[in-house]
Design brief:
Elements lengths: L2 H9 L3 H11 L16 H14 L3 H10 L1 H6 L10 H10 L2 H17 L24 H26 L12 H14 L5 H14 L1
Helix pairs in contact: 2-7, 3-4, 8-9, 9-10
């Protein structure tokens, strides 16, 4: 292993980190820790999930990389034993609670502070790679979002506009977001068609949305 992976390997040997994960895994079923056949060792799952996160891999690629590398087999404590499949890895990953992940981050920060790697006071992230709960920005969805924002602004400004002008067409305050959303869904549906008729209908829908 290179120097970086050796250091990470040393950090992941921390008993408290493994205990946190083992505690979550034992709650999957009432008697998970006492009965049933032998499962994949907690340390193996922990290290494979850590490797997936470190290298930004999919579950499939994580398993493939570990399978093909003696170094990664050693890092994950797999050695020459069979690897867990993708479904098993996903199932165990979903078992980890948000609270446990917070405790793990706190423990890692504590270890890094003790080793003088960081002071643990600030965190720096790159906004281009931080996951966020937002839909894919297609043309029609952005137009639909625009309608939503304009409708909200007009609704907030309605009282001020009517107070200063009596000749305003009340139709401009109508909430058109539902209509825009319906047209947007129609465009999504028409995007799957490849014939000329579908393309023409999609263009007409865009014109109507705009």
């Amino acid at each position: 292993m290179d120097e970086r992976m050796t250091l990470i390997d040393h950090l992941l040997c921390d008993d408290k980190l493994v205990e946190l994960i083992a505690e979550d895994f034992s709650r999957r079923y009432p008697l998970s820790s006492k009965t049933g056949r032998k499962s994949t060792p907690v340390e193996v799952i922990f290290r494979m999930l850590a490797l997936k996160h470190l290298r930004c891999l999919s579950y499939e690629k994580t398993i493939r990389n570990v399978k093909e590398s003696l170094t990664l087999r050693q890092f994950c404590r797999i050695y020459f034993n069979p690897l867990p499949n993708k479904s098993t890895l996903i199932r165990w990953a979903n078992t980890l609670s948000e609270q446990t992940l917070k405790k793990m981050n706190q423990r890692l920060t504590q270890i890094a502070t003790q080793l003088e790697i960081t002071k643990g006071r600030k965190i720096r992230t790159d906004g281009t790679v931080v996951a966020t709960n937002i839909h894919f920005p297609s043309d029609n969805s952005l137009l639909c979002d625009g309608v939503k924002v304009i409708t909200r602004i007009l609704s907030q400004a309605k009282s001020i506009i009517l107070e200063n002008s009596k000749l305003v067409n009340l139709g401009i305050f109508r909430n058109r977001y539902r209509t825009a959303r319906r047209i947007s869904r129609q465009i999504d549906s028409l995007s799957k068609t490849r014939n000329e008729s579908g393309k023409q209908k999609r263009t007409q829908a865009y014109v109507k949305l705009i």
